[in-house]
Amino acid sequence: MTWLITGGAGYIGAHVVRAMTEAGEKAVVYDDLSTGIAERVPDGVPLVVGSVLDGERVARALADHSVTGVVHLAAKKQVGESVDLPLHYYRENVEGLRVLLEAVTAAGVPSFVFSSSAAVYGMPDVDLVTEETPCLPMSPYGETKLAGEWLVRATGRASGLSTASLRYFNVAGAASPELADTGVYNLVPMVFEKLTEGAAPRVFGDDYATPDGTCVRDYIHVVDLAEAHVAAARALQASPGSALTLNIGRGEGVSVREMIDRINSLTGHDHPPTVTPRRPGDPARVVASADRAAVELDWKAKYDVEDMITSAWAGWVRLHPGAARD
Ligand code: WQD
């Protein structure tokens, strides 16, 4: 199989490319390099620079490389930005997907893996979120991911395309320092940044109805997430006509305070956090039931929070050498 991986020069996409090629699949990266980094694409993997909104360019890439499956990660992913720029998010994430699917179905490509998000659930009022938990996204970003799932599923039903939508929970870590996330938009890098500045990490609210009052999330190592894509790709190949929707998490809740404590101790820092007001829109607890992915994909996460923090820190120190502690 040859997989076209859109967004393959991004943080998660580059890990998917690595996992796919290590599993013996051929990969081609399709990325507009708006946030992706060409150096993340390994030698021997072709890079097509283009937007998913450019249907002709996508069609040419599918034909030129005899593509037999697509993993679609190219998208905008900042929740806060999506509130200010909803038109941009719908265009990039929903219209981009529609144009891509048009090319995919016209070319007769049989398999499609879609990068979705736990953001589709919004503020779930359950201990463990299953795929049957109602989807009530709280941001335009989450809406575009839910609309994307609908579009993917409807296209599969109409055309016979086999599909899998993977709902990522909170992704962290890196396979190697060069592949680490360079953005500072999530808890782990935001805490790294504060520690590097010699400032206190921030806890956005400690009055939630959780054991220590801080928000609880399900953190998943990006290498485990990438392996889930390989498993999904194989499952679609094995069962044409599939329409999978799967949580990709570990099923284990970790609080913001616990994460900051672990980050301090694993990076050799000792900077107690300060509590700031709640960040608007944050749900108290979002933890996956990972059972369906285990059954459907025979996949389970292998790495823990310590692995995520230490591997992410190695990537951070590479970019911010002054941050290292002896
Ligand atoms: C985690 C927790 C913060 C920084 C978002 C999207 C989701 C996915 C991942 C997808 C929250 C708290 C953070 C800090 C803090 N995105 N926090 N101090 O909001 O769970 O999920 O990113 O592509 O769809 O919604 O992730 O890492 O921003 O925050 O207290 O300095 O850490 O309030 O409770 P979130 P996050």
UniProtKB/TrEMBL annotation:
Catalytic activity: UDP-alpha-D-glucose = UDP-alpha-D-galactose
Recorded coiled-coil stretches: none
Family the entry assigns: Belongs to the NAD(P)-dependent epimerase/dehydratase family.
EC number of the protein: 5.1.3.2
Enzyme class of the recorded protein, top EC level: isomerase
Pathway(s) annotated for this protein in UniProt: Carbohydrate metabolism; galactose metabolism
Biological source species: Streptomyces thinghirensis
Claim: Plastid is one of the keywords in the record: no
UniProt name for this protein: UDP-glucose 4-epimerase
Domain NAD-dependent epimerase/dehydratase residues, every copy: 3-249
Gene: galE_3
Keyword Isomerase recorded: yes
Cofactor: NAD(+)
